[in-house]
Amino acid sequence: MRLRALLLFSLTTLVAAAASPPAADPSPPANPPVKALRITVLSTMLAGDNEKGIGEWGFAALVEVDGHRLLFDTGNRPYTVRENARELGIDLSDITEVVLSHHHSDHTGGLLTLRRAYIGKNPAALSRVHVARGAFWSRGPGEYAGDDNPLIAIRPVFEAGGGVFIEHAEPVQLYPGVWFTGPIPRPRNEQPVPPGWIVRTPDGATVPDTVPDDAALVFDTVKGLVVLTGCGHAGLINTLEYARTVVRPGGSVYAITGGFHQMRITEAGLESTAKDLRAFGVRVIHGAHCTGLETVYRLRSLLDLPRESASVAAVGSRFDLDQGIHPLVIAR
Hints:
With about 325 residues, the protein is of the alpha/beta class. About 25% of the residues lie in helices and about 25% in strands. The chain contains eight helices and 18 strands. The longest helix has 14 residues, at about 1-15. The model is unreliable at about 10-25 (pLDDT under 50).
């Protein structure tokens, strides 16, 4: 009912294992494209401090990279990101580009409200939305009992208001050194499909929904790759391996931030993940949304990272390439 009401409301408004830390990349490019990067969390479960922001089951982040600004995901409830940005003193009206990590409502729920909030100030605000192939495929529970993909309902309303969706079947460079992965290959079975998750493919077949549209952003920096994920349905290690393949084969992954979908991971799974993260050279972990609190703490311990380099993400917390994580008091 909430989605139906929002769509009707928005249509009217839019139309009128070693103990030492891993080493840095031994052979980074002499002049990597990304020089400055800041990622500020605008939606996740944990609220920040100083009475600013509200938490929810969702994710969104403001990305500022070498003078460019884009919004990565839009949270779950219609007004969360808008209100959190306002309380944090962040103006989103000059942002044109939006990246959606995948179609789920906890990452797409704020899109129409945000577009409506800023269109009067800037007609191009949040008007270009990048998604991976599969984002508009029909979903349904059980033996496919109808559509359960919110983007299918959102699309005509958004487009009627002058917005456009850009669907990518392959990796694409949005800005110098800033890559959108598109669909991520799954050589490892990291994320089993929950019972009842069904997707209808373009050829009409109904198959288990692995969330094939799950995608990430990758930043090529002097310290190594920085990878931003929304939910990690493709699997964290699959995502990092593909990031290297696309952007810097054999290079290190310096930092990971966003949702890793490891809230239910076993201890054996954590140990395996930590081993792989060490091999990638990961030195900073900023885990949000579906990562799991215990997951962050255990990975910090298993990788022997200092407290300031591995923390839970909260609304208003941020990762800065030069200054590291600003975790806020609640998430230290």
